[in-house]
Fold each of these.
Amino acid sequence: NIVMVTMLLQFMFAVIGVQLFKGKFNMCSDLSKNTEEECQGEFITYKHSDINQPTVLNREWIRYPFHFDNVGAGMLTLFVVQTFEGWPQILYVSIDSFAEDHGPVFDNRKYVFLFYMIYII
């Protein structure tokens, strides 16, 4: 019985998480670009912040491994939150989420911590 209740609560919060965060856990490997259309070509970065060691990298539009793009992935993400292992990073990605198919904006939605606090309690 306990497992069924836990799974039901996890499912309900995963559905809410999909509504709040679907498509919002994406980012460009070049942090100066915010959309997938802008995230094209190459950019220069420096190894260990040393200007004498430039490196040319391809821009990639990447999705955070734990996301809420569907209910199954949302349940997996909530399981990680439930175990308290690595959940602060998920919280930071959630707070920085901006819009669907748009890169992160620092501290954009500080109030989403309530979603995780209510879930944990």
Note: The CA atoms of residues 12 and 87 lie 19 Å apart.
Amino acid sequence: IRHEAVVSTQSTRGAPPKKRAQKARPSHHKGRLGKRVKMVREVVREVAGLMPYEKRILDMIKTGGASAEKRIYKFAKRRLGTHKRALAKREDIKEVYSKMRARQAMT
């Protein structure tokens, strides 16, 4: 005689399972920008200025034109390698340019 393993399939017995809130893992914090790193990067940008390819992107923003956004993206992507990095760099340089213009408007 062969005995089959009996598996309970009744879902109405006992207390229903509850989801437990889990603590955020330290690994989920990786990659976030901290206060100190942010400050250090600002100081380095202030002291060292822009890299040559960033200056070219800034020049493209200044000259503008109909397809400037796409040209800037394509240029940044060739230099940086990924779509995400190219978009982030484009926004970063735009921010630098807006700060430059704001500074000029004040003086």
Note: The first helix runs from residue 35 to 48.
